[in-house]
Design a protein that fits this description.
With 107 residues, the chain is an alpha+beta fold. Helix content is 27%, strand content 32%. It has one domain.
Amino acid sequence: MLNKWLDDVTEKGADKVEITAIVGNPPYQVNVKDDSGREQLFSVYNIFIDFSRNVAIDSILITPGRFLFDIGRTPHAWNRAMLSDKHFSVSKYYGIRAGKPMVLTMG
């Protein structure tokens, strides 16, 4: 749904939409039932990070830090792409024991 909205915005003239910054705490994961009725967790914060990078000049998001170590349910190709992106930076990392999420900035 989020990607559809982004596609619609860019198709209808993103040059008319100017978003300077996005600041937020996106959802981290969603439960999805498979065909057998079992629930599975899927990471979704990476979708919100991609979205914010596509529509805003700068973004500041509070997210889990697992992808910094290429672990967790976020796609590994996405993790590696983020970690090699020169526009990506971590402004504050609290670590696992602090019980706080990390904050990241891209711009």
